[in-house]
Amino acid sequence: MPRSVNAVAARARRKKLLKQTKGYFLRRKNVWTVAKNTYEKGLLYAYRDRKAKKREFRAIWIQRINAGVREHGMSYSEFMGKIHAKGIEMNRKVLADLAMNNPEAFAAIVKAVK
């Protein structure tokens, strides 16, 4: 009995992956094994960095809030403790945005907390 392989499906699978690696450098875009490894590694990085992105943004927001409150003679931890004690429900993203783009409103919040 002759050997049977589903060449059509296999070719389509490879073609689909090689289309995904378009734009990669050197053999990463057109050699099957190299492209496959690079593509899979890229998916791993994407998954990992979707999580890391959240940590990085939180760190940036904290730095911006800290810089904003230090202009008013407070530290970040002191400010956050007092803002929670006062019951002001604003997240770090909003506070950081105010500190950067609307210093007057941020100063009003700091004044309310003091």
* Number of E-type strands: 0
Structural class: mainly alpha
CATH topology (level 3) name: c-terminal domain of poly(a) binding protein
Number of domains: 1
The backbone outline, from C-alpha atoms, is: rod-shaped
Oligomeric assembly? single chain
Low-confidence stretches: none
Helix content: over 70%
* Proper CATH architecture: Orthogonal Bundle
Break the fold down into its secondary structure elements and pairings.
Layout: H1 7-20, H2 32-70, H3 76-86, H4 92-101, H5 103-113
Provide an overview of this structure.
This protein has 114 residues and is mostly helical. It has one domain (7-113): Ribosomal protein L20, C-terminal domain (c-terminal domain of poly(a) binding protein). 75% of the residues lie in helices and 0% in strands. It is built from 5 helices and no strands. Helix 4 crosses helix 5. The longest helix is centred in the middle third of the chain and has 39 residues, at 32-70. It is rod-shaped and about 85 Å long.
Short description:
This protein is mainly α and 114 residues long. It is rod-shaped and about 85 Å long. Helix 2 (32-70) packs across helix 4 (92-101) and helix 4 packs across helix 5 (103-113).
Overview features:
mainly alpha; c-terminal domain of poly(a) binding protein; 114 residues
